[in-house]
Amino acid sequence: MKGIYLVLLAVLLCSEQALSLQCYNCANLTNSQKCQLTLSCAPTPSVCYKGSMTLTTATGERATINAKGCAPSCQEVSQVMQLTANPSNPTGAFNIEVLDVTCCEKDLCNGVAQVARSLWAMAGGLLLSLGPALLWALL
Fold first, then answer.
1. Is 53 within a domain?
2. Which of 3, 7, 49, 95 is the most exposed place for a label (fewest CB within 10 A)?
3. High-pLDDT (> 70) share of the chain, %
4. Each residue of 81-100: pLDDT tens digit?
């Protein structure tokens, strides 16, 4: 029986899915927080990234471009975004500016920032949810 578990462990450790980083992967003009697509990165060293750029037209209209995905390194994705922001634009019809690029190395770490959990906040929520039941029991 132990042999089956060893074989299963070896298969899981040798598969690409088990060793590859999972990242959110999307580009959305309006709201990157709705990104639900995930991607398995290459098994080579890679990072998840989250970046945003603004596109300003000659008339002053602005749009924010948010992107998430996998990259071999944070430096490489920053360079690609800078090259994207500086296209040949002889007429001056638009301007693209990179706002920020952040990278991380954990599964799905390039998603929406989680609200910090506090022990006091959880205790308060528990007390508020159980408070009426405790009052009812005491009366």
1. yes
2. 3
3. 64
4. 888 887 766 667 788 899 99
CA atoms within 13 A on the CB side of 45: 5
Number of domains observed in the structure of the chain = 1
Residue 122 CA, distance from chain mean position: 25
CA distance 13 to 16: 8
The C-alpha atoms of residue 56 and residue 85 are separated, in whole angstroms, by 11
Determine the residue type at 66: N
Query: Is 91 contained in some domain?
Result: yes
First to last CA, the chain: 57
pLDDT at 74 over 90: yes
- Kindly report the pTM of this predicted structure: 0.63
